[in-house]
Amino acid sequence: MAYILVVEDSPDQALVIAGLLQAAGYRTKIAENGAVALSKMAGAVPDLVVTDLVMPELDGLQLVQQATKAYPGTPIILVTAYGSAEIAMRALREGAASFVPKDVVAEQLVETVRKVLELSQAKRERQRLLCSLIESRSRFVLENDTSLVPPLISYIQETVSCGQNKVGETELMRVGLALHEALINAMHHGNLEVGSELRRGSGEAYRKLLEERLQDPKYRDRRVSLTVEMSHEQLKLIVLDEGNGFNLSAVPDPTDAQNLIRLSGRGLYLIKTFMSEAFHNDRGNEVTLIMRFAPNLSTASV
Amino acid sequence: MTDAGHCDLAVLGNLEKEIGAQMVAEIIGAFLGHVPGKVSSVREGCRSGDLEAAATALHSIRSSAGMIGANGLLAVANEMEVLARSGDRNGLTRLLGDLEEMYGLSEALLVEQRARMTSNER
User: Fold this and answer.
1) Do A20 and B18 touch (CB under 8 A)?
2) Least CB-CB distance to B67: which of A9, A82, A102?
3) What does the angle CA A54 – CA A48 – CA B16 come to, to the nearest 5 degrees?
4) Ordered per-residue pLDDT tens for chain A, 302 residues
5) Which of A118, A161, A294, B24 is buried most deeply by CB count within 10 Å?
6) Does B64 touch chain A (CB under 8 A)?
């Protein structure tokens, strides 16, 4: 039976919400404001939170801001009164999962809760499954579409963080940033052959040439391949483009701090700094990024 | 409205079907315990000129009234909240009597409904 925390300062409204949820088979507890809710969450993390927005002490928006950081797996549904649209929009942007207007709470709350819980439980099950992942190898072949980069990185971060490795938030962020640099380099500089020197000034020339090359089949049809190999010892990412490669010796030494302010080579500097190891093939169209994990006692003994 | 004019009894009826008479009786009890304090806050806000406090109390009354179908109270509270947020103290004070009257009507009907629910339980 899912446990739902109801956060509402009006006792009668709290009872309506809790009553509807209990009748639908959920276990509920009531907190009269956001501060009490956070303290109850610290004791027992609920499967879902239903919260009012306007409350004394810590209001619904502040609760969303704090709870989504501390308990990212717990979805929050807002119960909104007429005239709260603006603050509700902000709360949704801050991470709330959905909202139900107060005047239709009897008709819509349970259905909304059921839907959000289903999605969140499916996500949690997937996380649990991923936690059993010991080793994997996958390969993605991407068009030169940079909008694919963030979801791909997020997928890899999720897989790595749930695996049997001891990977901290900082390492995850660094893997993400390094891979982002490598993929954008492969698309823009490798496949589309647009040099970073064009970024100087407004960057208009850089953007214009990118747009032109994205229309030209000679460049457009090239692909970027990303191979991801994960074990309990390391994460290995191989990014290969179909461009002509580049002369590595012509790139300013990325480990020289003086070159940090230069536009070219900055990506390489980040990659070399963030990863345990990073190297190119001779042609310069393939980069291998390696992140080694700290030994994990539970798997090392297996 | 299946009503007493100011209340939509269908809202209470639906809640009763969904969550049972005993729970709705508890909700009515909580409403009757909670809203008078908010009406007092509105009165105090009108007197002192603290319109923000009045608006917050009216927001709460409006939401509570809406959830149990006290539509007359909801309408007055709604109008008064707009006045409070726009800083119209005179307009707000002018409607204070309507708010108190509408609460009184709602209270009488809700007490009656609660008695019916609890007697059915027995």
Assistant:
1) yes
2) A102
3) 75
4) 899 999 999 999 999 999 999 999 999 999 999 999 999 999 999 999 999 988 888 888 899 999 988 998 899 999 988 667 777 788 888 888 888 888 788 888 999 999 999 988 887 787 778 778 888 999 999 999 999 998 999 889 888 877 656 677 778 888 998 999 899 999 999 999 998 778 766 778 889 999 999 999 999 999 999 999 998 889 999 999 999 987 777 766 655 555 544 445 667 777 888 899 999 999 999 999 999 987 654 443 32
5) B24
6) yes
